[in-house]
Amino acid sequence: MKILELKNLNFTYHSKEQETKALDSVSFSVEEGEFVGLVGPSGCGKTTILNLLAGIYPAEKGTVFLRGNPLEHTTTKIALMPQRDQLFEWRTIEKNVMLGLEITGTKTKENIRYGLSLLNKYGLGDFIKKHPSELSGGMRQRAALIRTLVLRPDVLLLDEPFSALDFQTRLNVCDDVYSIIKQEKKTALLVTHDISECISLCDKVIVLSKRPAHILQTVGIDIDKSLSPLKRRESHDFGKYFEAIWKLLEDKNECGTQTLCKKT
Amino acid sequence: MSAEHKRYVKKLKIRHAVIWLLRIGLLAAFLGIWELVAHYRIVDPFIISSPSRIVRLIGELYRENNLFPHILASLYETVLGFVIATVLGSLIAMALWWSKGLRDVLEPYLITLNSLPKIALGPIIIVWMGTGEKAIIFMAVLICVIITIISMLSGFIGVDKEKIMLLQSMKAGKLKIMTKLIIPANIPTLISVLKINVGLSWIGSILGEYLSSQKGLGYLLVYGSQVFQLDLVMASTVILCLLAGGMYGFVAIIEKIVRKHFG
């Protein structure tokens, strides 16, 4: 079942000096429970798509459907996990996780219990009274994901959530985040400039052109879904998908691929 | 605790003690040299006074009940100016963060007012408000408020845009963004504004007392210099140093409490 559908999405940034068309008739759909990746050259408009879906900007043209209904800009059924964890340093981990509930006015006993149960389930139960600075990068990222999950969204938007981490932590956190999202049966849309990360996590990869972004191709990833993202990197098909996406970006984007991560 | 750690802690304690000894030693040496220079008339004590003369004078002022009325007058004007300017400046900064239009309209006026030497407005303030404490408090507020607005506003605007977008994605309106993010994120800015305002509010009140007062430490300073009573000028300066230091210490205590709660 289609949970999310974007039809002919257009968006232009305006400044005094110029206008910059970021999206040019972007259309795609996401099935329930799918993990979908968006890759493309730096500045092509990947994050713009997430910001439109998160309701931060209104689309100038085109429609987004959530479960077949036009997306309301007041919905919290689509939740954003930003580039860095963006935990508030002055709040404890527990209070950071409850932030969304405070904002949406849904800090009920039941929701607080749910948030605490997520913290316990994903290994942060002993850290609820700690401040973010007392946690490792991976734990911070898990806390940020739980802050997003506590709002019980249908779709998670992940905006390069691992970009601020060192390589080893990044691989471990990737596994963690993937396993949490799958356990919670959420649909996820991941924006990244790292092709390897995208292939290791996603069921399909949408390849975007350079700005203004339009879809070059959607590549289905058929690697054993029971494997962890780290193990998926060892699959012999991994290289094949990497080459295909790399070539696609190289052919269509001239020098756009210079800004993408090579296979690691 | 390992022997190595014990040695490290001991070294830290010794360093701390040495720093305190040096601080006290520096002050004692300064006072001692000053006293000797005045006592042996290497420099005329009429010009530089001396620590013993200052202590004697403070005692005399106290006995004549002439000390605390002046201290309390200056303290009242300074603290009131400090509080009004900090609260008012922060509120104006919030309004300017809220409305970019208002910010754009008022920006040149803020820049001009910030560059203006506020003492130039002294005569106008006296004409408008008279020569009482109202004018002095107004002067203290005027000196502190613009820098409070500019510092707080710059802190508000400097909050990470991605954090704001995170809250927007949770459908937070401006009020929620302000209360949940902008204000708590700027507690350190407020603390540094408080520290700056301690000094500025004293400048404001003393300047105000120079211009129009019959009491307060600023008045004593001016009076002392007019009648060439340098002991009085020096005594007032020493008391001012102690009061400003005490007020700064009070802000440092607030900072400690706030940091405990806001990390």
**Mean pLDDT across every amino acid position of chain A:** 88
Report the radius of gyration of chain A as a whole number of Å.
18 Å
Our count of domains of chain B comes out at: 2
Largest interface: A-B, 28 and 20 residues
- Low-confidence stretches of chain B at least 5 residues in length (pLDDT < 50)? none
Oligomer: heterodimer
- Number of helices in the DSSP assignment of chain B: 12
The structure class of chain A reads: alpha/beta
Mean pLDDT rating of chain B: 94
CATH class of the largest domain in chain A: Alpha Beta
Number of strands of chain B: 0
Domains counted in the coordinates of chain A: how many?
A: 2
The strand order across the widest sheet of chain A is 6-7-8-3-9-10
The N- and C-terminal alpha carbons of chain A lie at a distance of 34 Å
- What's the Cα radius of gyration of chain B? 24 Å
> How would you name the CATH homologous superfamily of the largest domain in chain A?
P-loop containing nucleotide triphosphate hydrolases
- Describe the largest sheet of chain B: none
Cα distance spanning the termini of chain B = 28 Å
Could you state the order of secondary-structure elements of chain B as H and E?
A: HHHHHHHHHHHH
